[in-house]
């Protein structure tokens, strides 16, 4: 059932959380209020109790040399995790990502989790402690959103970091030889996701598309204007072979239409005729639903050519091709047609 994989999604979350507080400073001022020194506060991953123990006790470097931890200092740790049912999504939903060697990478829906973090600041005096607090609180109202690249499929996922509580304490018990320490504890909740295994997706090699003039699926006389087979060549994933007819056919009451200019000129009774105000010889064009079609010149309006008022004889269905090479992306729109078909791998 289970197989090894490592997305490092939790590790990347911990790194992203720590980077929020990796550039904190405290300043020292003279009697005139001028800044005379600014020190960067080191950040370490570790539990709060370890820092308090190192502050109170003197560490031993050698038999004759002893040192004490330097303050101010900051630390953070991941305290726990819990499932978040409010952000649950469909388990069967797949997410597709980058394409490698002709195959796309996919993964199932991520699982939402709430991850608890604790952040601690340790200072010698209250002024330095309040400086650090003021540099943190304004950014959380009450949340701050970070963007994390968890894997090749789920990139730039927004993770809200919510500040839930803040507390300040001071170690004051003991004699005068005890080191003074002021500690501030921040509690956070990260609304993140845990991601499953990423698997390759097979390449689509063939698809069948059927297009209809209307949306009435119960009408047995509805006309199939085009049946098109699209085959992807094995030598390249970009070359596509399209098999379709060239006309004549009717689209939105326009008839006769052709898929290329040569066929339209061949069907024209006056192949050298140029319509007033146009430059095309033997044909003119119509753009319908984002597709460019060609109509012969020299036909009789209402008898052999129609502009929007042609009625299809269902006894003799007229084929309708798909666009060849003059598709205009910004003209594509929903024109009331329905599609259906099968995709084979």
Kindly summarize this structure in a few lines.
This protein has two domains: 9-200, STM4215-like, CATH 3.30.2000; 204-344, no CATH class. Helices cover 11% and strands 41% of the residues. The chain contains four helices and 22 strands.
Layout: helices, strands, pairs:
Layout: H1 9-19, E1 25-29, E2 35-40, E3 43-45, H2 48-56, E4 59-60, E5 66-67, E6 73-83, E7 94-100, E8 103-108, E9 111-123, H3 126-136, E10 143-148, E11 157-171, E12 181-194, E13 199-201, E14 206-212, E15 224-232, E16 240-243, E17 249-251, E18 254-257, H4 261-266, E19 283-288, E20 291-296, E21 306-307, E22 339-344
Tally of individual helices: 4
What structural category arises from helix and sheet content? mainly beta
Overall pLDDT score: 76
**Spatial gap, N to C terminus:** 25 Å
**Shape category:** elongated
User: Number of folding domains?
Assistant: 2
Largest sheet: 6 strands, mixed
Helicity range: 10-25%
Low-confidence stretches: 235-244, 314-345
**Main β-sheet, spatial strand arrangement:** 3-6-9-12-11-10
Task: List the keywords.
2 domains, STM4215-like, single chain, mainly beta, 4 helices, 11% helix, 345 residues, 6-stranded mixed beta sheet, 4-stranded antiparallel beta sheet
Model description:
With 345 residues, the chain is mainly beta. The chain is 11% helix and 41% strand. Strand 1 and strand 2 form a beta hairpin.
């Amino acid at each position: 059932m289970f197989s090894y994989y490592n997305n490092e999604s939790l590790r990347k979350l911990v790194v992203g959380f720590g980077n929020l507080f990796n550039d904190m400073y405290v300043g020292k001022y003279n009697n005139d209020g001028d800044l005379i020194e600014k020190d960067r506060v080191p950040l370490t991953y570790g539990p709060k109790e370890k820092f308090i123990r190192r502050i109170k006790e003197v560490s031993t470097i050698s038999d004759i040399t002893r040192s004490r931890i330097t303050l101010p200092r900051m630390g953070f740790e991941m305290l726990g995790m819990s499932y978040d049912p409010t952000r649950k999504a469909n388990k069967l939903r797949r997410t597709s990502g980058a394409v490698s060697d002709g195959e796309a990478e996919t993964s199932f829906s991520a699982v939402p989790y709430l991850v608890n973090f604790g952040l601690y600041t340790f200072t010698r005096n209250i002024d330095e402690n309040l400086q650090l607090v003021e540099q943190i609180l304004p950014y959380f109202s009450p949340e701050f959103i970070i963007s994390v690249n968890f894997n090749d499929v789920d990139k730039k996922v927004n993770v809200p970091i919510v500040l839930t509580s803040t507390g300040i304490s001071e170690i004051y018990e003991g004699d005068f030889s005890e080191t003074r320490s002021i500690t501030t504890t921040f509690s956070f909740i990260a609304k993140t996701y845990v991601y499953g295994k990423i698997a390759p997706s097979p390449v689509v090699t063939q698809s069948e598309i059927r297009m209809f003039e209307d949306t009435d699926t119960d009408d047995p006389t509805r006309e199939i204007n085009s049946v098109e087979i699209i085959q992807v060549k094995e030598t390249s994933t970009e070359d596509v072979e399209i098999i379709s007819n060239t006309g004549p056919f009717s689209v939105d009451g326009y008839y006769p239409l052709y898929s290329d200019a040569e066929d339209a000129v061949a069907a024209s009774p006056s192949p050298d005729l140029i319509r007033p105000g146009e430059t095309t010889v033997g044909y003119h064009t119509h753009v319908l639903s984002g597709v460019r079609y060609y109509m012969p010149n020299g036909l009789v309006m209402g008898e052999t050519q129609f502009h929007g008022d042609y009625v299809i004889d269902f006894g003799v269905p007229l084929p309708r091709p798909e666009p060849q090479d003059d598709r205009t992306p910004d003209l594509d729109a929903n024109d009331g047609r329905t599609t259906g078909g099968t995709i084979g791998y």
